[in-house]
Amino acid sequence: MKLYNTLTRKVDEIKPQHPPEVTIYTCGPTVYDYAHIGHWFTYVRMDILVRTLKAGGFKPKWVMNITDVGHLVSDADEGEDKLQQKARREGKTAQEIAEFYTKDFLDGMASLNMLKPGRIVKATEHIKDQIALIRKLEKKGYTYVIDDGVYYDTGKFRRYPEFARLDLDEQQAGARVNHNPQKRNPSDFALWKFSPEDVKRDMEWDSPWGKGFPGWHIECSAMSMKYLGDTLDIHTGGIDHVPVHHTNEIAQSEAATGKRFANYWMHSNHVTVDGEKISKSLGNSITLRDIEKKGISPQAVRLHILESNYRSQSKFNWDSLVAAENRLRDLRAMAVLRWQAPETTHDTGTFALLDVPLQLFNRLADDLDTPQALAYLSEVSTQLQVVFIEQDMVDHFEAMLQGIDDLLGLDLMSEGDITDEQKRMIAERSKARDAQDWARADKMRDLLLEQGIAVRDTVHGAIWSRS
RNA sequence: GGCGCCUUGGCGGAGUAGUUACGCAGCGGUCUGCAAAACCGUUUACACGGGUGCAAUUCCCGUAGGUGCCUCCA
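^ Those are the sequences you sent over. The predicted structure of the assembly is below.
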Protein backbone atom coordinates (compact mmCIF):
# COMPACT_ATOMS: atom_id res chain seq x y z
CA MET A 1 0.00 0.00 0.00
CA LYS A 2 1.61 3.20 -1.19
CA LEU A 3 0.41 6.72 -0.57
CA TYR A 4 1.68 10.17 -1.37
CA ASN A 5 2.91 11.65 1.87
CA THR A 6 2.77 15.42 2.21
CA LEU A 7 5.37 15.15 4.96
CA THR A 8 8.03 13.65 2.69
CA ARG A 9 6.59 14.85 -0.65
CA LYS A 10 7.02 11.32 -1.94
CA VAL A 11 4.90 8.26 -2.51
CA ASP A 12 5.68 6.18 0.57
CA GLU A 13 4.95 2.59 1.49
CA ILE A 14 2.54 2.62 4.41
CA LYS A 15 4.18 1.05 7.45
CA PRO A 16 1.99 1.40 10.53
CA GLN A 17 3.59 1.48 13.95
CA HIS A 18 1.66 -1.54 15.18
CA PRO A 19 0.50 -3.60 12.23
CA PRO A 20 -2.02 -4.73 11.35
CA GLU A 21 -3.56 -1.80 13.22
CA VAL A 22 -3.30 1.50 11.40
CA THR A 23 -4.48 4.66 13.07
CA ILE A 24 -6.13 7.34 10.98
CA TYR A 25 -7.37 10.77 11.91
CA THR A 26 -9.48 12.76 9.50
CA CYS A 27 -10.20 16.46 9.86
CA GLY A 28 -13.94 16.64 9.54
CA PRO A 29 -16.15 19.58 8.67
CA THR A 30 -17.07 22.67 10.60
CA VAL A 31 -20.78 22.24 10.95
CA TYR A 32 -22.16 25.66 10.27
CA ASP A 33 -23.69 24.99 6.86
CA TYR A 34 -24.69 22.21 4.47
CA ALA A 35 -21.88 20.01 3.22
CA HIS A 36 -21.20 20.72 -0.45
CA ILE A 37 -19.78 18.71 -3.30
CA GLY A 38 -16.24 19.72 -2.39
CA HIS A 39 -16.58 18.18 1.05
CA TRP A 40 -17.84 14.99 -0.47
CA PHE A 41 -14.92 14.72 -2.86
CA THR A 42 -12.64 14.86 0.14
CA TYR A 43 -14.50 12.47 2.38
CA VAL A 44 -15.26 9.86 -0.26
CA ARG A 45 -11.53 9.77 -0.96
CA MET A 46 -10.83 9.16 2.73
CA ASP A 47 -13.41 6.41 2.57
CA ILE A 48 -11.50 4.81 -0.31
CA LEU A 49 -8.29 5.06 1.69
CA VAL A 50 -9.83 3.16 4.59
CA ARG A 51 -11.43 0.58 2.30
CA THR A 52 -8.13 -0.03 0.56
CA LEU A 53 -6.30 -0.42 3.85
CA LYS A 54 -8.87 -2.94 4.99
CA ALA A 55 -8.57 -4.90 1.77
CA GLY A 56 -4.83 -4.85 2.25
CA GLY A 57 -5.18 -6.68 5.54
CA PHE A 58 -4.85 -3.70 7.84
CA LYS A 59 -7.17 -3.00 10.73
CA PRO A 60 -7.94 0.70 10.47
CA LYS A 61 -8.66 2.58 13.66
CA TRP A 62 -10.33 5.61 12.21
CA VAL A 63 -11.31 8.78 14.04
CA MET A 64 -13.00 11.77 12.47
CA ASN A 65 -13.83 15.00 14.21
CA ILE A 66 -16.69 17.41 13.92
CA THR A 67 -15.77 21.01 14.56
CA ASP A 68 -18.67 22.47 16.44
CA VAL A 69 -16.95 25.36 18.16
CA GLY A 70 -14.00 27.66 17.82
CA HIS A 71 -13.67 27.98 14.07
CA LEU A 72 -13.59 31.70 13.57
CA VAL A 73 -14.65 33.57 10.51
CA SER A 74 -11.02 34.40 9.99
CA ASP A 75 -8.10 32.07 10.59
CA ALA A 76 -6.20 35.08 11.83
CA ASP A 77 -8.16 34.36 14.99
CA GLU A 78 -10.34 37.34 14.57
CA GLY A 79 -13.96 37.83 13.83
CA GLU A 80 -16.86 35.79 15.01
CA ASP A 81 -17.12 32.07 15.61
CA LYS A 82 -18.67 30.57 12.48
CA LEU A 83 -21.35 28.75 14.39
CA GLN A 84 -22.12 31.70 16.59
CA GLN A 85 -22.49 33.93 13.56
CA LYS A 86 -24.83 31.50 11.84
CA ALA A 87 -26.85 31.12 15.01
CA ARG A 88 -27.25 34.86 15.37
CA ARG A 89 -28.38 35.21 11.78
CA GLU A 90 -30.91 32.42 12.04
CA GLY A 91 -32.12 33.27 15.49
CA LYS A 92 -30.99 29.96 16.95
CA THR A 93 -28.37 28.81 19.39
CA ALA A 94 -24.96 27.66 18.28
CA GLN A 95 -25.81 24.24 19.65
CA GLU A 96 -28.87 24.01 17.45
CA ILE A 97 -26.86 25.00 14.41
CA ALA A 98 -24.21 22.41 15.19
CA GLU A 99 -26.75 19.69 15.73
CA PHE A 100 -28.61 20.44 12.52
CA TYR A 101 -25.60 20.48 10.23
CA THR A 102 -23.93 17.57 11.95
CA LYS A 103 -26.97 15.52 11.09
CA ASP A 104 -26.85 16.78 7.51
CA PHE A 105 -23.24 15.65 7.26
CA LEU A 106 -23.84 12.23 8.76
CA ASP A 107 -26.86 11.70 6.52
CA GLY A 108 -24.73 12.58 3.53
CA MET A 109 -22.07 10.11 4.57
CA ALA A 110 -24.67 7.40 4.79
CA SER A 111 -26.26 8.16 1.45
CA LEU A 112 -22.84 8.08 -0.19
CA ASN A 113 -22.34 4.67 1.35
CA MET A 114 -19.30 5.78 3.30
CA LEU A 115 -17.82 3.55 5.95
CA LYS A 116 -18.43 4.83 9.43
CA PRO A 117 -15.35 5.98 11.29
CA GLY A 118 -14.78 4.06 14.50
CA ARG A 119 -15.30 7.29 16.35
CA ILE A 120 -16.78 10.60 15.38
CA VAL A 121 -15.65 13.09 17.99
CA LYS A 122 -16.87 16.59 18.69
CA ALA A 123 -14.78 19.51 19.83
CA THR A 124 -17.35 20.61 22.39
CA GLU A 125 -17.19 17.24 24.10
CA HIS A 126 -13.43 17.46 24.57
CA ILE A 127 -12.92 20.84 26.18
CA LYS A 128 -11.09 19.37 29.16
CA ASP A 129 -8.69 17.51 26.91
CA GLN A 130 -7.96 20.68 25.03
CA ILE A 131 -7.38 22.66 28.20
CA ALA A 132 -5.04 19.95 29.44
CA LEU A 133 -3.04 20.13 26.23
CA ILE A 134 -2.82 23.91 26.41
CA ARG A 135 -1.57 23.65 30.00
CA LYS A 136 1.07 21.23 28.86
CA LEU A 137 2.21 23.70 26.24
CA GLU A 138 2.08 26.47 28.81
CA LYS A 139 4.35 24.56 31.16
CA LYS A 140 6.84 24.05 28.36
CA GLY A 141 6.83 27.76 27.64
CA TYR A 142 5.17 27.75 24.24
CA THR A 143 2.30 30.03 25.15
CA TYR A 144 1.63 33.63 26.03
CA VAL A 145 -1.46 35.54 26.98
CA ILE A 146 -2.72 38.72 25.36
CA ASP A 147 -5.98 40.66 25.64
CA ASP A 148 -8.16 38.28 23.66
CA GLY A 149 -6.67 34.90 24.41
CA VAL A 150 -3.87 32.44 24.96
CA TYR A 151 -1.58 32.13 21.98
CA TYR A 152 0.97 29.67 20.69
CA ASP A 153 4.38 31.21 20.08
CA THR A 154 5.41 29.76 16.74
CA GLY A 155 8.77 31.42 17.13
CA LYS A 156 9.56 28.84 19.79
CA PHE A 157 8.95 25.96 17.41
CA ARG A 158 11.82 26.10 14.97
CA ARG A 159 10.44 23.56 12.55
CA TYR A 160 7.19 25.50 12.13
CA PRO A 161 7.61 26.34 8.41
CA GLU A 162 8.95 22.94 7.38
CA PHE A 163 5.80 20.93 6.88
CA ALA A 164 4.16 23.32 4.45
CA ARG A 165 7.48 24.59 3.08
CA LEU A 166 6.45 28.03 4.20
CA ASP A 167 8.57 31.06 3.51
CA LEU A 168 7.13 33.21 6.22
CA ASP A 169 9.11 36.34 5.38
CA GLU A 170 8.13 36.25 1.74
CA GLN A 171 4.51 35.61 2.57
CA GLN A 172 4.21 38.48 4.94
CA ALA A 173 5.67 40.90 2.44
CA GLY A 174 2.68 40.83 0.17
CA ALA A 175 -0.08 39.58 2.36
CA ARG A 176 -2.83 41.99 3.15
CA VAL A 177 -3.59 40.74 6.58
CA ASN A 178 -4.31 42.77 9.64
CA HIS A 179 -2.61 40.99 12.44
CA ASN A 180 -3.25 41.57 16.04
CA PRO A 181 -0.32 43.79 17.01
CA GLN A 182 -0.02 42.01 20.33
CA LYS A 183 0.95 38.78 18.62
CA ARG A 184 4.65 38.04 18.78
CA ASN A 185 4.71 36.49 15.32
CA PRO A 186 2.19 36.81 12.53
CA SER A 187 1.86 33.04 12.37
CA ASP A 188 1.03 32.69 16.08
CA PHE A 189 -2.43 31.33 16.65
CA ALA A 190 -4.97 31.19 19.43
CA LEU A 191 -5.17 28.18 21.71
CA TRP A 192 -7.87 29.65 23.88
CA LYS A 193 -10.00 32.67 23.16
CA PHE A 194 -11.62 34.74 25.86
CA SER A 195 -15.31 35.42 25.54
CA PRO A 196 -15.75 39.01 24.42
CA GLU A 197 -17.46 41.01 27.12
CA ASP A 198 -19.88 42.72 24.79
CA VAL A 199 -21.04 39.62 22.94
CA LYS A 200 -23.22 36.87 24.28
CA ARG A 201 -21.90 33.42 23.45
CA ASP A 202 -23.91 30.21 23.52
CA MET A 203 -20.77 28.17 23.94
CA GLU A 204 -18.22 29.10 26.56
CA TRP A 205 -16.34 27.30 29.27
CA ASP A 206 -14.25 28.12 32.31
CA SER A 207 -10.52 27.69 32.00
CA PRO A 208 -7.40 28.50 34.02
CA TRP A 209 -7.04 31.62 31.89
CA GLY A 210 -10.62 32.80 31.99
CA LYS A 211 -13.98 32.10 30.47
CA GLY A 212 -13.89 31.43 26.77
CA PHE A 213 -13.61 28.78 24.13
CA PRO A 214 -10.85 26.78 22.43
CA GLY A 215 -9.11 27.82 19.24
CA TRP A 216 -9.82 25.82 16.13
CA HIS A 217 -6.52 23.97 15.86
CA ILE A 218 -6.17 22.61 19.37
CA GLU A 219 -9.16 20.29 19.10
CA CYS A 220 -7.60 18.07 16.46
CA SER A 221 -4.36 17.70 18.38
CA ALA A 222 -6.16 16.95 21.62
CA MET A 223 -8.65 14.48 20.23
CA SER A 224 -6.35 12.61 17.89
CA MET A 225 -3.79 12.08 20.63
CA LYS A 226 -6.44 11.10 23.13
CA TYR A 227 -7.83 8.33 20.96
CA LEU A 228 -4.91 7.36 18.76
CA GLY A 229 -1.82 8.13 20.80
CA ASP A 230 0.92 10.73 20.55
CA THR A 231 1.93 9.55 17.11
CA LEU A 232 -0.68 8.49 14.64
CA ASP A 233 -0.10 6.66 11.41
CA ILE A 234 -2.11 8.61 8.87
CA HIS A 235 -3.57 12.08 9.16
CA THR A 236 -5.90 13.18 6.40
CA GLY A 237 -7.74 16.30 5.38
CA GLY A 238 -8.37 18.83 2.67
CA ILE A 239 -5.35 20.31 0.94
CA ASP A 240 -6.23 23.75 2.23
CA HIS A 241 -5.24 22.62 5.69
CA VAL A 242 -1.58 22.18 4.86
CA PRO A 243 -0.29 25.72 5.48
CA VAL A 244 -2.31 26.64 8.55
CA HIS A 245 -4.38 24.04 10.30
CA HIS A 246 -2.12 21.05 9.95
CA THR A 247 1.00 23.13 10.36
CA ASN A 248 -0.43 24.35 13.64
CA GLU A 249 -1.49 20.88 14.71
CA ILE A 250 2.06 19.69 14.23
CA ALA A 251 3.44 22.66 16.15
CA GLN A 252 1.13 22.04 19.11
CA SER A 253 1.37 18.30 19.23
CA GLU A 254 5.07 17.92 18.69
CA ALA A 255 5.90 20.72 21.11
CA ALA A 256 3.77 19.02 23.73
CA THR A 257 5.02 15.46 23.29
CA GLY A 258 8.43 15.82 21.71
CA LYS A 259 7.38 13.07 19.29
CA ARG A 260 6.39 13.11 15.70
CA PHE A 261 2.67 13.78 15.41
CA ALA A 262 1.83 11.79 12.27
CA ASN A 263 3.91 9.60 9.99
CA TYR A 264 1.82 10.03 6.87
CA TRP A 265 -0.22 13.00 5.74
CA MET A 266 -2.77 12.54 3.00
CA HIS A 267 -4.40 15.58 1.47
CA SER A 268 -7.29 15.67 -0.90
CA ASN A 269 -7.03 18.33 -3.56
CA HIS A 270 -9.90 20.68 -4.13
CA VAL A 271 -12.57 20.51 -6.75
CA THR A 272 -13.75 23.39 -8.87
CA VAL A 273 -17.28 23.91 -10.11
CA ASP A 274 -17.45 25.20 -13.67
CA GLY A 275 -13.82 26.19 -13.41
CA GLU A 276 -14.13 28.19 -10.26
CA LYS A 277 -13.47 27.47 -6.65
CA ILE A 278 -16.41 26.64 -4.47
CA SER A 279 -17.43 29.53 -2.30
CA LYS A 280 -20.46 31.07 -0.79
CA SER A 281 -20.17 34.28 -2.75
CA LEU A 282 -20.16 32.46 -6.09
CA GLY A 283 -23.25 30.52 -5.11
CA ASN A 284 -21.79 27.26 -6.38
CA SER A 285 -21.91 25.28 -3.16
CA ILE A 286 -23.75 22.34 -4.67
CA THR A 287 -25.13 19.96 -2.06
CA LEU A 288 -26.19 16.34 -2.25
CA ARG A 289 -29.74 17.57 -1.97
CA ASP A 290 -29.30 19.68 -5.13
CA ILE A 291 -27.98 16.64 -6.94
CA GLU A 292 -30.71 14.28 -5.82
CA LYS A 293 -33.29 16.86 -6.89
CA LYS A 294 -32.04 16.40 -10.42
CA GLY A 295 -32.65 12.67 -10.20
CA ILE A 296 -29.00 11.73 -9.94
CA SER A 297 -28.12 9.05 -7.43
CA PRO A 298 -25.52 9.53 -4.69
CA GLN A 299 -23.71 6.51 -6.07
CA ALA A 300 -23.20 8.37 -9.34
CA VAL A 301 -21.63 11.16 -7.30
CA ARG A 302 -19.32 8.63 -5.73
CA LEU A 303 -18.43 7.17 -9.12
CA HIS A 304 -17.76 10.63 -10.48
CA ILE A 305 -15.47 11.38 -7.57
CA LEU A 306 -13.51 8.20 -8.24
CA GLU A 307 -13.01 9.12 -11.88
CA SER A 308 -10.32 11.61 -10.99
CA ASN A 309 -7.18 11.34 -8.92
CA TYR A 310 -7.31 12.73 -5.41
CA ARG A 311 -4.07 14.60 -5.87
CA SER A 312 -5.12 16.66 -8.85
CA GLN A 313 -7.57 19.46 -8.79
CA SER A 314 -10.80 18.00 -10.10
CA LYS A 315 -13.57 19.61 -12.00
CA PHE A 316 -17.21 19.23 -11.26
CA ASN A 317 -19.94 19.94 -13.76
CA TRP A 318 -23.37 18.54 -14.38
CA ASP A 319 -22.51 16.91 -17.70
CA SER A 320 -19.82 14.82 -16.06
CA LEU A 321 -22.19 13.80 -13.34
CA VAL A 322 -24.73 12.62 -15.90
CA ALA A 323 -21.94 10.70 -17.64
CA ALA A 324 -21.13 9.05 -14.33
CA GLU A 325 -24.77 8.13 -13.86
CA ASN A 326 -24.72 6.44 -17.28
CA ARG A 327 -21.52 4.65 -16.47
CA LEU A 328 -23.03 3.42 -13.24
CA ARG A 329 -26.03 2.13 -15.14
CA ASP A 330 -23.73 -0.15 -17.11
CA LEU A 331 -22.05 -1.43 -13.96
CA ARG A 332 -25.46 -2.18 -12.51
CA ALA A 333 -26.38 -4.00 -15.70
CA MET A 334 -23.39 -6.19 -15.02
CA ALA A 335 -24.42 -6.69 -11.40
CA VAL A 336 -27.89 -7.99 -12.22
CA LEU A 337 -26.45 -10.79 -14.29
CA ARG A 338 -26.41 -12.72 -11.07
CA TRP A 339 -30.20 -12.94 -11.16
CA GLN A 340 -30.30 -14.43 -14.62
CA ALA A 341 -27.77 -17.19 -14.69
CA PRO A 342 -28.80 -20.08 -16.92
CA GLU A 343 -28.27 -23.64 -15.83
CA THR A 344 -27.00 -24.66 -19.20
CA THR A 345 -23.30 -24.67 -19.76
CA HIS A 346 -21.99 -22.77 -22.70
CA ASP A 347 -18.54 -22.84 -24.06
CA THR A 348 -17.79 -19.27 -23.12
CA GLY A 349 -14.39 -19.86 -21.70
CA THR A 350 -13.46 -19.00 -18.17
CA PHE A 351 -13.16 -15.67 -16.59
CA ALA A 352 -11.11 -15.19 -13.46
CA LEU A 353 -13.87 -13.57 -11.44
CA LEU A 354 -12.14 -13.83 -8.11
CA ASP A 355 -9.12 -12.10 -9.55
CA VAL A 356 -11.08 -8.91 -10.20
CA PRO A 357 -11.09 -7.51 -6.65
CA LEU A 358 -7.39 -8.24 -6.39
CA GLN A 359 -6.71 -6.37 -9.62
CA LEU A 360 -8.77 -3.47 -8.35
CA PHE A 361 -6.93 -3.50 -5.06
CA ASN A 362 -3.57 -3.41 -6.80
CA ARG A 363 -4.54 -0.20 -8.53
CA LEU A 364 -5.92 1.40 -5.40
CA ALA A 365 -2.91 0.33 -3.39
CA ASP A 366 -0.84 2.39 -5.82
CA ASP A 367 -1.52 5.76 -4.24
CA LEU A 368 -5.28 5.34 -4.58
CA ASP A 369 -5.29 5.23 -8.35
CA THR A 370 -9.06 5.25 -8.67
CA PRO A 371 -9.07 6.27 -12.37
CA GLN A 372 -7.08 3.16 -13.29
CA ALA A 373 -9.25 1.03 -11.03
CA LEU A 374 -12.36 2.23 -12.82
CA ALA A 375 -10.78 1.77 -16.23
CA TYR A 376 -10.12 -1.83 -15.30
CA LEU A 377 -13.60 -2.26 -13.90
CA SER A 378 -15.15 -0.97 -17.11
CA GLU A 379 -13.18 -3.50 -19.12
CA VAL A 380 -14.37 -6.28 -16.84
CA SER A 381 -17.93 -5.08 -17.10
CA THR A 382 -17.83 -5.01 -20.87
CA GLN A 383 -16.40 -8.51 -21.05
CA LEU A 384 -18.93 -9.95 -18.63
CA GLN A 385 -21.84 -8.56 -20.63
CA VAL A 386 -20.77 -10.97 -23.31
CA VAL A 387 -19.43 -13.86 -21.29
CA PHE A 388 -22.65 -14.32 -19.36
CA ILE A 389 -22.75 -15.73 -15.86
CA GLU A 390 -23.79 -19.33 -15.59
CA GLN A 391 -25.36 -21.02 -12.62
CA ASP A 392 -22.19 -22.61 -11.36
CA MET A 393 -20.38 -19.28 -11.60
CA VAL A 394 -22.85 -17.29 -9.53
CA ASP A 395 -21.09 -17.82 -6.23
CA HIS A 396 -17.86 -16.54 -7.63
CA PHE A 397 -19.61 -13.72 -9.41
CA GLU A 398 -21.29 -12.56 -6.22
CA ALA A 399 -18.01 -12.77 -4.37
CA MET A 400 -16.54 -10.60 -7.09
CA LEU A 401 -19.33 -8.03 -6.76
CA GLN A 402 -18.91 -8.00 -3.01
CA GLY A 403 -15.20 -7.49 -3.48
CA ILE A 404 -15.85 -4.54 -5.77
CA ASP A 405 -18.32 -3.08 -3.30
CA ASP A 406 -15.92 -3.51 -0.42
CA LEU A 407 -13.28 -1.55 -2.29
CA LEU A 408 -15.26 1.08 -4.13
CA GLY A 409 -18.51 1.26 -2.17
CA LEU A 410 -20.64 1.32 -5.30
CA ASP A 411 -23.25 -0.89 -3.67
CA LEU A 412 -23.66 -3.14 -6.71
CA MET A 413 -24.86 -6.00 -4.53
CA SER A 414 -27.99 -4.05 -3.65
CA GLU A 415 -29.25 -4.37 -7.20
CA GLY A 416 -32.21 -6.66 -6.69
CA ASP A 417 -34.08 -9.07 -8.87
CA ILE A 418 -37.09 -8.14 -10.99
CA THR A 419 -40.60 -9.28 -10.10
CA ASP A 420 -42.13 -12.58 -11.13
CA GLU A 421 -44.56 -10.68 -13.30
CA GLN A 422 -41.71 -8.96 -15.09
CA LYS A 423 -40.02 -12.30 -15.58
CA ARG A 424 -43.24 -13.66 -17.01
CA MET A 425 -43.37 -10.78 -19.48
CA ILE A 426 -39.85 -11.48 -20.62
CA ALA A 427 -40.73 -15.13 -21.11
CA GLU A 428 -43.83 -14.15 -23.03
CA ARG A 429 -41.79 -11.90 -25.26
CA SER A 430 -39.37 -14.71 -25.97
CA LYS A 431 -42.24 -17.01 -26.83
CA ALA A 432 -43.72 -14.41 -29.16
CA ARG A 433 -40.37 -14.00 -30.85
CA ASP A 434 -40.10 -17.72 -31.37
CA ALA A 435 -43.50 -17.56 -33.03
CA GLN A 436 -42.31 -14.57 -35.03
CA ASP A 437 -45.09 -12.48 -33.52
CA TRP A 438 -43.04 -9.31 -33.63
CA ALA A 439 -45.89 -6.98 -32.65
CA ARG A 440 -46.55 -8.92 -29.48
CA ALA A 441 -42.85 -9.18 -28.67
CA ASP A 442 -42.30 -5.47 -29.11
CA LYS A 443 -45.31 -4.66 -26.99
CA MET A 444 -43.86 -6.69 -24.13
CA ARG A 445 -40.57 -4.94 -24.55
CA ASP A 446 -42.23 -1.52 -24.44
CA LEU A 447 -44.26 -2.43 -21.38
CA LEU A 448 -41.13 -3.57 -19.59
CA LEU A 449 -39.32 -0.43 -20.60
CA GLU A 450 -42.09 1.62 -19.03
CA GLN A 451 -41.27 -0.19 -15.81
CA GLY A 452 -37.62 0.69 -16.22
CA ILE A 453 -36.56 -2.71 -17.47
CA ALA A 454 -34.55 -2.90 -20.68
CA VAL A 455 -34.24 -6.20 -22.49
CA ARG A 456 -31.51 -7.17 -24.88
CA ASP A 457 -31.18 -10.37 -26.86
CA THR A 458 -27.98 -12.36 -26.79
CA VAL A 459 -26.93 -15.74 -28.11
CA HIS A 460 -27.68 -16.97 -24.61
CA GLY A 461 -31.21 -15.59 -24.54
CA ALA A 462 -32.89 -12.42 -23.31
CA ILE A 463 -31.12 -10.43 -20.62
CA TRP A 464 -32.62 -7.58 -18.66
CA SER A 465 -31.12 -4.59 -16.98
CA ARG A 466 -32.47 -1.40 -15.48
CA SER A 467 -32.63 1.49 -17.89
C1' G B 1 2.43 42.23 -4.37
C1' G B 2 4.73 37.17 -2.93
C1' C B 3 4.78 31.80 -3.67
C1' G B 4 2.81 27.56 -6.32
C1' C B 5 0.05 24.57 -9.73
C1' C B 6 -2.39 23.62 -14.29
C1' U B 7 -3.34 23.75 -19.87
C1' U B 8 -4.58 16.20 -23.22
C1' G B 9 -9.79 14.69 -28.65
C1' G B 10 -17.26 17.29 -28.12
C1' C B 11 -17.10 16.57 -22.48
C1' G B 12 -14.56 14.25 -18.25
C1' G B 13 -10.06 11.97 -17.25
C1' A B 14 -5.32 8.59 -17.09
C1' G B 15 -0.55 8.15 -19.02
C1' U B 16 4.20 7.98 -21.47
C1' A B 17 10.53 10.15 -24.34
C1' G B 18 9.36 6.26 -29.55
C1' U B 19 3.95 1.11 -29.36
C1' U B 20 -1.73 6.88 -28.20
C1' A B 21 -5.88 4.19 -20.84
C1' C B 22 -10.93 4.34 -19.49
C1' G B 23 -15.85 6.54 -19.42
C1' C B 24 -19.86 9.61 -21.48
C1' A B 25 -21.62 11.71 -26.10
C1' G B 26 -21.69 11.92 -31.90
C1' C B 27 -21.15 9.67 -36.74
C1' G B 28 -20.55 5.24 -40.13
C1' G B 29 -20.62 -0.04 -40.36
C1' U B 30 -21.14 -5.50 -38.90
C1' C B 31 -24.75 -8.32 -36.38
C1' U B 32 -30.18 -8.30 -35.38
C1' G B 33 -37.24 -9.38 -37.38
C1' C B 34 -36.61 -4.31 -35.33
C1' A B 35 -33.98 -2.75 -31.22
C1' A B 36 -30.47 -3.25 -27.43
C1' A B 37 -25.81 -5.20 -26.31
C1' A B 38 -21.26 -6.40 -28.45
C1' C B 39 -17.62 -5.63 -32.09
C1' C B 40 -15.05 -2.64 -36.06
C1' G B 41 -14.10 2.10 -37.91
C1' U B 42 -14.36 7.44 -37.39
C1' U B 43 -14.02 13.00 -35.77
C1' U B 44 -5.99 12.54 -37.63
C1' A B 45 -5.89 15.05 -28.71
C1' C B 46 -1.91 16.46 -26.15
C1' A B 47 -2.12 25.70 -25.30
C1' C B 48 1.72 28.61 -28.22
C1' G B 49 7.12 29.67 -29.39
C1' G B 50 11.96 28.10 -28.82
C1' G B 51 15.74 24.49 -26.94
C1' U B 52 18.09 19.50 -25.73
C1' G B 53 17.58 14.46 -27.73
C1' C B 54 17.90 9.64 -33.25
C1' A B 55 13.01 10.74 -31.29
C1' A B 56 8.87 15.31 -27.04
C1' U B 57 2.40 15.43 -25.70
C1' U B 58 6.11 13.46 -22.00
C1' C B 59 12.56 16.96 -20.24
C1' C B 60 14.41 22.55 -20.15
C1' C B 61 13.39 27.94 -21.09
C1' G B 62 9.99 31.59 -22.47
C1' U B 63 4.85 33.43 -23.88
C1' A B 64 -0.45 33.27 -23.29
C1' G B 65 -4.59 31.69 -20.66
C1' G B 66 -6.57 29.49 -16.32
C1' U B 67 -6.33 28.53 -11.33
C1' G B 68 -4.79 27.85 -6.01
C1' C B 69 -2.60 29.70 -1.50
C1' C B 70 -0.78 34.00 1.34
C1' U B 71 -8.11 36.24 3.92
C1' C B 72 -12.64 32.23 4.70
C1' C B 73 -13.09 27.41 2.69
C1' A B 74 -12.92 19.92 2.19
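The radius of gyration of chain A is 27 Å. The first strand of chain A starts at residue 2 and ends at 5.

Shout if you want it in another format.
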